């Protein structure tokens, strides 16, 4: 390599940094604004991940296949301890409690509805309402009945017909509770990282599955609005730094006229000086960087894509390895407060941020393993038969954040914004926030 070529290549590599340094960063607010009393603070959970007593389903089969680290077993037994978890959420001041109504649980055979399990969900909905919270119901959090597996699952072009039969049953029964609705949880992750990787669909049928999920969402969106005027309906997207526009083209762009808010799941960050997010791909989630300022960039990306549309962080949280301190030293309570700070900054900068769910209320089954811990309440599923809920320091932190409508006016994040963030490249590097 000659000298001119070396200089040319170094300039190409350095260009993003030069641009970032040349453009002034947005100044930090003198005071952190309040998010207001109408802001929706929530917590999240999902049926298969938390309920235990799991009926036959695609995921029970994956769990028992020997291909995962842990079988699901009892999980945290939300099926029988829901009152405790909902009460814990109430005591934090939470306004929204997210659950999923499991298709495999309520329809054990084609055309057969399990009244006992439907009545269980009735009790859960009533308890959420009596506790002063609004349900957020997920219709599909990656789990479908064993009989649907035997029919081919999403390889079967008629799967969407069966899916809609179940979804309409759930809507008819629970629209009276005025829930917020999530139709399909993280459809791109569902398709590629779950069904495809576990063999639930054949590679050539990936487009078929996505087409059916789009049809499912669009159809049930209209159905919900016919049963629940003024409903809020969406599908939450897993935000993946640098590649989100490509992923949105597969699903979100195809349902953009059928969403009442933009649902966003944000966990991991990446920057020019920190590429540790690759650890999430190896399922060592606790090693992946989770800089909270990435929330701001994810919100800004969708604010520009859908100007004025309400933005709701449906999932955000921080994993540890079995509750141990993270390698980067980031603590759950600090991450939660930092997240609240960046939500407030986004709203102050004109983004229509309306809600935030912490994932999750308790530790739970992380799709093949109990090692990653996301819970506000720690539960040692594999070692504690009593399944005791033990509050982390983040419980008190969240209670304080909710009570005050955000963090203190003089709060500053415990971690500085990343240098040359690539969460929404290139603009998150060239137009940084500080």
UniProtKB/TrEMBL annotation:
Signal peptide stretch: 1-30
Domain of life: Bacteria
Protein name, per record: Glycosyl hydrolase family 1
GO CC annotations on file: cytosol
BP term (GO), one: carbohydrate catabolic process
Pfam families reported for this sequence: Glyco_hydro_1
Family listed: Belongs to the glycosyl hydrolase 1 family.
GO molecular function: beta-glucosidase activity
């Amino acid at each position: 390599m000659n000298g001119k070529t070396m200089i040319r290549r170094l300039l190409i590599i350095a260009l993003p940094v030069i641009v970032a340094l040349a453009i002034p960063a947005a100044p930090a607010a003198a005071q952190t604004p309040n998010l207001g009393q109408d802001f929706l603070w929530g917590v999240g959970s999902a049926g298969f991940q938390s309920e235990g007593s799991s009926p036959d389903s695609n995921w029970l089969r994956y769990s028992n296949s020997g291909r995962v680290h842990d079988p699901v077993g009892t999980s945290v037994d939300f099926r029988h301890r829901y009152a405790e978890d909902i009460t814990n959420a109430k005591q934090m001041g939470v306004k929204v409690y997210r659950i999923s109504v499991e298709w495999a649980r309520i329809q054990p055979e084609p055309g057969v509805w399990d009244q006992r399990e439907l009545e269980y969900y009735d009790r859960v909905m009533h308890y959420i309402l009596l506790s002063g919270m609004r349900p957020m119901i997920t219709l599909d959090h990656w789990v479908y009945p064993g009989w649907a597996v035997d029919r081919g699952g999403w390889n079967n072009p008629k799967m969407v017909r069966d899916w809609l039969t179940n979804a309409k049953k759930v809507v008819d029964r629970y629209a009276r509770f005025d829930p917020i609705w999530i139709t399909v949880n993280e459809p791109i992750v569902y398709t590629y990282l779950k069904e495809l990787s576990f063999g639930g669909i054949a590679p050539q049928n990936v487009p078929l599955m996505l087409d059916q999920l789009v049809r499912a969402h669009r159809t049930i969106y209209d159905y919900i609005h016919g049963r629940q005027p003024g409903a809020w309906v969406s599908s939450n997207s897993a935000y993946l730094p640098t590649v989100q526009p490509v992923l949105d083209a597969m699903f979100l762009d195809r349902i953009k006229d059928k969403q009442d808010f933009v649902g966003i799941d944000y966990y991991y960050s990446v920057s020019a000086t920190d590429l540790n997010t690759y650890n999430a791909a190896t399922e060592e989630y606790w090693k992946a960087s989770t800089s909270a300022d990435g929330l701001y960039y994810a919100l800004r990306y969708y604010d520009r894509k859908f100007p004025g549309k309400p933005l709701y962080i449906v999932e955000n949280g921080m994993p540890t390895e079995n509750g141990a301190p993270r390698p980067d030293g980031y603590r759950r309570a600090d991450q939660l407060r930092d997240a609240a700070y960046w939500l407030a900054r986004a709203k102050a900068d004109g983004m229509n941020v309306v809600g935030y769910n912490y994932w999750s209320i308790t530790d739970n089954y992380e799709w093949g393993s109990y090692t990653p811990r996301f819970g506000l309440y720690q539960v040692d599923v594999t070692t504690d038969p009593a399944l005791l809920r033990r509050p982390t320091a983040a419980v008190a932190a969240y209670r304080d954040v909710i009570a005050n409508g955000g963090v203190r006016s003089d709060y500053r994040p415990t971690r500085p914004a990343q240098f040359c963030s690539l969460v929404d490249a290139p603009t998150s590097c060239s137009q940084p926030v500080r």
